[in-house]
Write a structure and sequence with these properties.
six-stranded parallel β-sheet; five-stranded parallel β-sheet; elongated
Length: 310
């Protein structure tokens, strides 16, 4: 495909066959790609079954840190999608795995939800904050407020938090300013998310942005488009990045993630990216292929039987 976004054309039938033949593993985004809110996107189940039938490895990566991998597996099952927990990678898991890799021994203060808390617990990392601080507030009535924090907090991890409040931001800020060496980690910086069919919602970037503004520091981002999760997947599956095709709905995470790591990329228009945005002269992030919906890939189902699939 052309490197100019404005000249892009939807994936052709020949390119669909080429894509299936070329790549050994397909990594799917979730929100806006396989489902929107609690509604499965048409063709998702059939495409995953088709890829597996032809011997392809399938993985799922989401920047939504509100749920753990175990919780996501339950959602897959409720929607009738086949998956194993070790095929699912979330940004909450990424934060926990990164800290475990660094042999982190301190506590984590969480701006986020149970996904982060549960993933930290799964690797033996102690947490505070998160949903437990949803109803807390700073008392300014004395005219001289003071925030006491746990001196064992060695990292602040920020993800999507639908219970965000001033108390959480101030607690996290105080940890970063007053606890020596305290790390600022973001699960992702997505500006918006597809949490329902009809509307877009403020994403984790909202919460991360609040703490960036207060701390004047930049976080370590462990979710897409950071390479950490892709490195983990490729090592686990014993495949090279050039053998992977990323399928997702976002240019600034899914497509950028694949492009900068040497993967193929398939953009779908069922999430936050419109065709107008994709082809805008201002857009510099160009996918290998694009299509309206993942269900479009099923048009080659009958043709695959006459092809040699590597």
């Amino acid at each position: 495909m052309s490197s100019e976004a404005s000249s892009l054309q939807p994936i052709t039938e020949d390119e669909k066959l080429e894509m299936i033949q070329k790549y050994q593993a397909f990594v799917f985004d979730l929100d806006g790609t396989l489902w929107k809110g609690s509604t499965l996107i048409k063709g998702a189940t059939e495409l995953l079954d088709l890829l597996r039938y032809h011997g392809k490895k399938v993985f799922f990566v989401t920047n939504n840190a509100t749920m753990s991998r175990a919780a996501y597996l339950k959602k897959f099952q409720s929607l009738g999608l086949k998956a194993q927990q070790d095929e699912i990678y979330g940004s909450a898991y990424a934060a926990a795995a990164w800290l475990k890799q660094k042999k982190f021994q301190k506590k984590v203060y969480v701006i986020g939800e149970y996904g982060i808390v549960d993933e930290m617990a799964s690797v033996g990392i102690r947490t505070l904050g998160g949903p437990e601080d949803a109803g807390k507030y700073v008392d300014f009535s004395s005219g001289d407020p003071h925030m006491e924090v746990d001196r064992e907090v060695g990292a602040v991890v920020v993800g999507l938090d639908r219970g965000i409040n001033y108390y959480k931001v101030q607690y996290a800020l105080t940890c970063l300013l007053e606890n020596p060496g305290c790390m600022f980690i973001a699960t992702n910086t997505d500006s918006r998310g597809n949490f329902s069919q009809a509307q877009e919602w403020a994403g984790a970037g909202t919460m991360v942005g609040a703490l960036i503004g207060a701390s004047e520091a930049e976080p370590l981002v462990v979710g897409k488009p950071s390479s950490f999760l892709l490195d983990t997947i490729c090592k686990t599956a014993n495949i090279g990045k050039e053998q992977v095709c990323i399928v997702g709905d976002r240019l600034d995470t899914d497509v950028l993630w694949g492009n900068k790591n040497g993967c193929g990329t398939l953009l779908v228009l069922t999430g936050v990216t419109s065709e107008e945005l994709l082809k805008s002269p201002d857009n510099k992030i160009v996918p290998t292929y694009y299509t309206e919906t993942i269900g479009d890939m099923l048009s080659i189902k009958d043709k695959l039987s006459s092809c040699v699939i590597s």
